[in-house]
Automatic annotation (TrEMBL):
<feature type="domain" description="Molybdopterin oxidoreductase">
    <location>
        <begin position="125"/>
        <end position="500"/>
    </location>
</feature>
<dbReference type="GO" id="GO:0051539">
    <property type="term" value="F:4 iron, 4 sulfur cluster binding"/>
</dbReference>
<protein>
    <submittedName>
        <fullName>Oxidoreductase alpha (Molybdopterin) subunit</fullName>
    </submittedName>
</protein>
<dbReference type="InterPro" id="IPR009010">
    <property type="entry name" value="Asp_de-COase-like_dom_sf"/>
</dbReference>
<keyword id="KW-0408">Iron</keyword>
<dbReference type="GO" id="GO:0008863">
    <property type="term" value="F:formate dehydrogenase (NAD+) activity"/>
</dbReference>
<keyword id="KW-0500">Molybdenum</keyword>
<dbReference type="InterPro" id="IPR006656">
    <property type="entry name" value="Mopterin_OxRdtase"/>
</dbReference>
<keyword id="KW-0411">Iron-sulfur</keyword>
<dbReference type="GO" id="GO:0030151">
    <property type="term" value="F:molybdenum ion binding"/>
</dbReference>
<dbReference type="GO" id="GO:0043546">
    <property type="term" value="F:molybdopterin cofactor binding"/>
</dbReference>
<keyword id="KW-0004">4Fe-4S</keyword>
<dbReference type="Pfam" id="PF00384">
    <property type="entry name" value="Molybdopterin"/>
</dbReference>
<dbReference type="Pfam" id="PF01568">
    <property type="entry name" value="Molydop_binding"/>
</dbReference>
<keyword id="KW-0479">Metal-binding</keyword>
<comment type="similarity">
    <text>Belongs to the prokaryotic molybdopterin-containing oxidoreductase family.</text>
</comment>
<keyword id="KW-0560">Oxidoreductase</keyword>
Amino acid sequence: MTRRGPEKDIDESELEVHGRERSAAGVRGVVVSLARSLQQMGPVRTAKTLPLLNQRSGFDCPGCAWPEPREADGDSRKWAEFCENGAKAVAEEATTRTVGPEFFDNHSIDDLAERTDYWLGQQGRLTQPVIRREGDTHYRPIDWQRAFEVIADKLREIGPERTSFYTSGRASNEAAFCYQLLARSFGTNNLPDCSNMCHESSGAALSETIGVGKGSVTLSDIEHADLVVVMGQNPGTNHPRMLSSLERTKHNGGRILAINPLPETGLMRFSNPQNIRGVAGSGTPLADEFAQIRIGGDLALFKALGALLLRFEDESPGTVLDRGFIEEHTYGFTEFAARGRDIDWQEVERLTGLEQQQIERIARMLADSRSTVVCWAMGLTQHRQAVPTIREIVNVQLLRGMIGKPGAGLCPVRGHSNVQGDRTMGIWERMPDSFLAALDEEFGLSVPRAPGRDTVETLRAMHDGSCTAFFGLGGNFAAATPDSAATEAALRACELTVQVSTKLNRSHVVPGRTALILPTLGRTERDRQVGGEQFVTVEDSMSVVHGSRGRLEPASPDLLSEVAIVAELARTLLGEDHPVPWREFENDYDRVRESIARVVPGCADYNDRVREPDGFVLPHPPRDSRTFPTATGKANFTDNVPDMIHVPEGRLLLQSLRSHDQYNTTIYGLSDRYRGVENARRVVLVNPVDIAELDLADGQIVDLVSEWADGSGGIEERRAESFRVVGYATPRGCVAAYYPEANPLVPLDSVAEYSNTPVSKAVVVRLEPARTVV
Ligand SMILES: Nc1nc2c(c(=O)[nH]1)N[C@H]1C(S)=C(S)[C@@H](COP(=O)(O)OP(=O)(O)OC[C@H]3O[C@@H](n4cnc5c(=O)[nH]c(N)nc54)[C@H](O)[C@@H]3O)O[C@H]1N2
Ligand SMILES: Nc1nc2c(c(=O)[nH]1)N[C@H]1C(S)=C(S)[C@@H](COP(=O)(O)OP(=O)(O)OC[C@H]3O[C@@H](n4cnc5c(=O)[nH]c(N)nc54)[C@H](O)[C@@H]3O)O[C@H]1N2
Ligand code: SF4
Ligand SMILES: [Mo]
């Protein structure tokens, strides 16, 4: 049975605001996940689907990259190894609503461009390839073979230099491996990905300091840590099963320190619906200490913490620092210690918004802990000083030897379910030469060595006309990237845009001159090829690689898998005599995995090891053996200097974040339940004292105007219209609005040092009474 999506779009005037919820998850979470599943899939499909989520014989949750428990860690999976937002992610994909040819007949592209991403996504699954030919007002059906020919002809005309191949982090390892191989065989390293906007800063900081750009902990480390620091992260919404792990940390006697401008419900208290206390009681208090930091204050905080640890060591030598570790495994400690003891408290309090007393208390928590894990996500990575901030966290962890031992380490909590795997498989504009050489050797190619363009560079190249073809393997490039108005214009100016997608989104309605949408199978669906039914593999946030097998009938008989789309395009573009065995890859994914085993480091015997019930863990030298493959051969201390974000009088610092009812640009619904914001999305959360001081009123509708110093003395302004002011417990001077509604405010040139990640968490804005109400 197929169904249509709703006609109604968001009505912002229906906003309801109630108080923040006290406790995350609980029975309410179960009720919501069931209701959403029934709404999208109906009872039969719901009963069939949810039990397969995250089970060994089923599919990997397309929600986030949080790992499943492993037998090897003495852990078994529960009957329901998923969370409310995992269930929503599945319902969104396994929906029985579809978008067919009559939909595109009825809606011109201009008409669709008027709708929100919410409405577009709610229309259901794409069912057949469509094309917008130059000058046409509508998308029209096209058959697959013809679609590949059109794309191949255009790409040959445009050439590899002027093409970018974007990836979103849901692509499987097999699809990602084939895709980077296609791009490089065609002749370019232009492989921007969502990671450029996400954990790129973590990768940059960790590669330099510990030699591996990935996290160094296992689930068991978190659960057995003495202290877990959760900073710049809202796990109750974005990694909900992390709360079960944190509950176990507490149960095992560990403590939790939360550092966040917002008192996010999931950091405070958790009601686990899988145990009686969570169902009947008030749940488990999580954070032992909550530091309500100012936006962008983390580097200053960790500088102070490092200095305090040195002082504590001076006071009682031999009790705080791990001298053995520092001596044997690190580089640069002497310089670090020489500069590190002075603290300008006034400055630190100004930058962090925290009091000296609390910072000293936190330093004691660190000094007293035998094993500390620090976890973080977008609240740290999407800042101008993101890389120095994460490097400073590494400094503090190194002082106490908190890496490569049980219960300790560094844990960037990854976003998309396979974003880490995609990078392992070569989705990166600057893969090391050793990887490129291995590709050449495996396939008899000579792939280009010059680094390609990342996301921001791709946008810049679109603006100056040096990138005119965009191919997206998943994702929603138009809505996820900064500076929306300019970005949309840049996409419209392209000669060719191709989107491989499961559902409609903003990127489809800002088409290039020739534009195609290629509909694909999702994670939940059966993938049948000539060689029989296939499975794919993924890597989670803790480097565990395992299989995922879709079990549902595909949304339409006309869908191709991502591997098939890439392989067929490659054959059409590169010719049947191309040295890569594209046809065999498509017929049998074991053949892809055989090549992965020979090309990708750490993946020997890939086909055997991914068939183990829990898969396998990729090597991580710092975690496994305290070996640090950096330039110095040791873990590096670094020198990082915080500099204040300049916020002029009457201006505020805006962060853009996720509501509880969305997956990035996919809006599931309109209930940001934990924060008490319902039925609408254009809101700006402001401290009540600031509301009064700025002569605004709670509930008033304002425009958000961002101000960006363009470097030559001028101020660029960007406007996002019609946001309702909501009084909220955010620090003075710090405000929040949802992503992607806030993206028009983020200047393309506002990027993190070293990682080029858009600064989505610190935009200088002023609030103006609304010019018009949308
Ligand atoms: N349900 C659901 N799950 C998801 C996603 C989703 O959209 N929905 N997205 C996935 C993806 S791709 C990602 S990357 C992750 C994102 O996961 P998160 O990083 O948790 O996502 P955000 O909503 O961006 O939340 C950022 C948090 O950082 C805090 N913060 C902002 N600025 C600062 C700061 O300067 N310092 C500190 N200490 N904190 C700060 C904010 O208050 C907020 O709590 O989630 C993944 N999982
Ligand atoms: N202002 C601001 N901007 C941000 C952020 C922020 O916090 N603030 N966060 C950034 C972050 S962390 C990230 S990761 C990016 C996300 O950027 P993207 O990954 O580009 O965006 P998504 O919204 O995750 O992509 C959703 C689309 O993916 C498609 N899709 C879903 N499943 C599949 C699948 O299985 N296969 C294929 N081929 N397509 C599929 C659907 O068509 C859906 O519309 O956004 C970044 N942008
Ligand atoms: S925590 Fe993440 S991966 Fe796990 S079930 Fe929830 S959304 Fe899915
Ligand atoms: Mo992300």
